[in-house]
Amino acid sequence: MTPHPPKVLAGILNTESERAWEDTKDRTDLILTQRFPKKTYLDAPNVVVALKHFDLGMGGKAIGVKAATDCIERDHFNTRLSVWGDGAMSSSGCAWMAYQATDKRFRSGTVRTSRRSKMPSEFPIEFETPFEGDPTVLVWISGFQMGLGDTWEMKAHAIKSEKTGFTLVVEKGIQTNLHQGLFSWLAFMPGEGVAGGSVEDIKIGDGEGTVAADGSYVWTDPKEISFGKTLNGVTKDNVMVGISAIKFERAAMRLCYKHVEINDDMNGMKLTSGTWWGSVVRSATMSWVAVV
């Protein structure tokens, strides 16, 4: 008997796999479609998206990128990847996770900040249905628009996680001019075939990491991540990894990661982060969730 497709799926959507600055105008606003295996969902699922990579340049007074779901149906969804502001985008990509709306293991949503938002900003979130205990909450950056400044620095995370809700916190650097921000969050109870966490203080470039043979990329050493349990049957199609914090000096904003490698014993994975030539990542945080 053929096993039924998993009800929780994850993956990535990219505008470009290779950098190409000679023609960026056609990549300023793209709609990418992700189709689900046949009969995976009886109804439209909930979909969470987060930035997974970007290669951005200053094109005026602002720099930014945004990933947002455009249409969600039971057999597919669309994601709009676009420049947010008047900057230039060579490539960008998002990570996504889809789950049945009836799956009580998860709650999710989005928060948006504006120029009027004080920093740090705190957003109390109340779950429509409480958990039985205090959940794990992950927060990702789905989009940002920043102005001129000496640094580009921002962070999104959760505090005061309780069974009824949590507080989403957005912080920025003192010398960072954050015009707008878009953030996604996912809450779940540890256990029940779910694991999640964050890899913090990732540094790349300026002597940190290994330069690729062709000089185009700089990669960190693979980071070993423990699930804290064995997730039998987990594959890269059940893992979502997105960006939660960034810090760049003003030059170019370039951050990416390779496909995760699931350990043979299925109790963890390896994550390799990177950047392209000419960019230095002073600090970054990647948050992840794995589900079976």
Automatic annotation (TrEMBL):
Gene3D superfamilies linked to this entry: 2.60.40.2080
Domain of life: Eukaryota
Organism: Morchella conica CCBAS932
A GO molecular-function descriptor: carbohydrate binding
Descriptive protein name: H-type lectin domain-containing protein
InterPro entries: H-type_lectin_dom_sf, H-type_lectin_domain
Domain H-type lectin: 35-99, 124-188
A biological process term (GO) from this entry: cell adhesion
